[in-house]
Each structure stands twice: as structure tokens, then as C-alpha cells.
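TICKET: design request
STATUS: open
ATTACHED STRUCTURE:
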């Protein structure tokens, strides 16, 4: 029984960590006024009939803080890539010279910065909900194990551990959000 309780703890911690990792990956795609190739991770290009993420069909670099270069491996796809960037509505205007696509990163307006912060906080709240759901599932599993013969004191100790995991991960989510808000609001 105690092994099952430990499995419940490990599973809950893993789900909470997954929620935090997802939040961090999602926030990487937010444009904070400086060139960041990660913003193109969600851009999908029609590559000969197949929906292909842009990073899988080109080299994306950032030669300086205000410019990004997209160098497709197949030069005939430049127009399709340009269209996909425009359709993704990232706020960029791509310019191509037949070889590479150059993107000048415009400075964010105050209004857009506030929108991004609000969106980031929404993502943070989603991560917190996922963490709390993992906590609830773990608590329910521990109660069920107690009915099946797990000693009550062991169940209570494990519930305390689950709550500590929850508090730790919610605090980490807040720290990640604070750091991202500072990054977005810095001009």
C-alpha cells in the first residue's frame, strides 16, 4: 500500500512539473520586443500539401536584437513561408530577397505589451488549474488507498506532501509569470 501511495505522489509531482514546463514553453513564443526565433514555433506552412512547422523547414536566426532571418532549405517555399507568417498574425511584415526572409521586429506598443501580459497571466492561470487538478486527483487516490487499507497517518502525511508540491509549483508559476511580465514591460 505504501508503494502505491508513493506512486501517487510521484505521479502528482510529474503532472505538476508538466504543467509548469508547458507554461514555460508557451511563454517562450511570446514576443517581448526583441528578436526571438521561438515565436515561429507555432507557424505552420503548407509544404507540398503537408502542414509543416516553420522551424522544421528552415533555419531561423537572430543576427541582432531587432532582426530575424529565415533561410528556407527549399528556396521555392519562400512565398508559402511568407504567407504562413502573415496568416499567423504575429505582427510581422516579412520581406524576401529570393534567398532569405528578413523580418524587422517592431517595438511593441504599450497597449500590445499589456495584452501580452494579460495573455501570459491567462496561461499562468491555466497552469495553476492543471496543478490543482493534479492535487485533487492525488488526494482522491490517497483517500481511496486509505479505504483499501493504507494507515490513516501515512495518508495524512502524503496529503501534506501533495499540498507542499502544490504550493511549490504554484509559487514557481508565479515566479515565471513575474519574470515574463518584467521582460514584456521592459522597453
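STATUS: resolved
RESOLUTION: sequence designed for all positions
ATTACHED SEQUENCE:
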Amino acid at each position: 500500500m505504501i508503494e502505491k501511495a508513493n506512486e501517487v505522489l510521484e505521479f502528482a509531482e510529474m503532472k505538476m512539473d508538466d504543467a509548469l514546463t508547458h507554461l514555460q514553453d508557451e511563454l517562450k513564443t511570446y514576443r517581448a520586443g526583441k528578436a526571438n526565433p521561438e515565436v515561429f514555433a507555432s507557424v505552420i506552412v503548407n509544404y507540398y500539401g503537408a502542414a509543416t512547422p516553420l522551424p522544421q523547414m528552415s533555419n531561423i536566426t537572430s543576427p541582432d536584437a531587432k532582426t530575424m532571418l529565415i533561410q528556407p532549405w527549399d528556396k521555392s517555399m519562400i512565398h508559402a513561408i511568407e504567407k504562413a507568417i502573415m496568416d499567423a498574425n504575429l505582427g510581422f511584415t516579412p520581406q524576401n530577397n529570393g534567398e532569405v526572409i528578413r523580418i524587422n521586429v517592431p517595438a511593441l506598443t504599450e497597449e500590445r505589451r499589456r495584452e501580452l501580459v494579460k495573455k501570459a497571466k491567462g496561461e499562468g492561470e491555466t497552469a495553476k488549474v492543471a496543478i490543482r487538478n493534479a492535487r485533487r486527483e492525488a488526494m482522491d487516490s490517497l483517500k481511496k488507498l486509505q479505504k483499501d487499507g493504507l494507515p490513516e497517518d501515512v495518508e495524512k502525511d502524503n496529503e501534506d506532501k501533495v499540498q507542499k508540491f502544490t504550493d511549490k509549483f504554484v509559487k514557481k508559476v508565479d515566479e515565471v509569470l513575474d519574470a515574463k511580465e518584467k521582460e514584456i514591460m521592459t522597453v
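CLOSING REMARK: The mean pLDDT is 88. The first strand starts at residue 44 and ends at 47.
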